[in-house]
Amino acid sequence: MTDVAxxxxxxxxxxxLVIDDAATARPLAEALVAGGLxxxxxxxxxxxxxxxxxxxxxxxxxxxxxxTVTTAGHFAAAHDAGAAFIVSPGLTERLAAPVxxxxxxxxxxxxxxxxxxxxxxxxxTHFKFFPAEPSGxxxxxxxxxxxxxxCRFCPTGGITAATAPDWLGFxxxxxxxGSWVTPKGATMAEVEELARAASTLRP
Length: 203
Description:
This protein has about 200 residues and is of the alpha/beta class. The protein has 9 helices and 8 strands.
């Protein structure tokens, strides 16, 4: 899969995963995919993240990407681990250049009109709106999306199961990122149940 729009429309919710133990990665991916969430973002916030990506890639149906990619070095490591897509919390030309050149789907974070214009200059039209709630919530995204009508978004940050339908009901939003589907201490059966509920959220 090489198209970011296709990735963003595969599931309404992309789980944002912080994995401390790579041994838990495959069972977690299996539970999420069984629940209907195939696109998984493993954040590069822990030493186990790259091994987790490698393990999750082996799960049939899983589309595993790397999140919290903030440097070209992060990207190189994620690329080597086989990440299917790249998500960053912000957008810089120094990071964007090698990702764009690689052809790997890229979802950079934006929070302002200037961020979006920088992305458009780089040929990008699909963005992560981050941090979604602290940046003004749905009202702010609606204001930004009006002049940038050609853009599509994946809001992430502070979104819950209760607020997700409102975000997904806004046409420029193709999906949302969230961590509520993998709460700390949840069993794999509970994760699968939460994923199943999240997979039906699209209006």
